[in-house]
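User: Fold this; tokens only.

Assistant: Input:
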Amino acid sequence: MILTIRSEWMKFVSSIWCVVGVFIALLLQPILLFAGLSFAGSLTASLALEQMLQALYVSQVGIIIMSASFFGQEYFDSSLRTTFLSNSNRTKVLVAKALILAITSLVAGAISVSLGIVVALFHNVNFIFSDFGKIALNMFSWTMIGWISGFITVVLKSYIISMAIIIPLLLAVNQLLVALSSVFRFLPDFAMWNVFSIYPNEMLLTAQAGIVTQLIWAFVMGVVAIWFNLRRDVR
């Protein structure tokens, strides 16, 4: 398993789009927070925290790009056959990718939040300890949305289609769909919306329900991705 993880890590760092996704996840939040606080009238800890959480939500775009590119790179450069010939255990390859993605997402999230705190301190705003519990749930959502994006990429055999579906949903389409029907609250990208705000929307899922929903999405898509992976003909 260690050799598989090492091999997949080398693929990750050699992929330009994976690196681009990491940098977006790292830097988009502090940049948006700095811009928001710079143009805000009166600065409060609540305002800074709300803007940070919303910026972390948007920064999931970087996680989606990173994940879809990582899980879909074999389909892009037609190296899937080589990957499975060098490692006959196809499930192990997916598990290694999922582990690398989770660790990378958590580390990128921790660095991004740290940069956000520096930005807030620059504007003379201090967060309290209880605020970090909500921020920690954001990192959980980053990991889940990354896994779901990756598994969808494996099923569709295209990281472009995967990103074309999930990124528009994340940024705007989900809100339009929820306006049409409350069923769309259970979309994986929108299930955790209340975690990314200090002002809960009663029409959407609670944090606890959102966690369960994303876990179910990740589990189901993971099982489907493994099934497709095992049955896929690479000849």
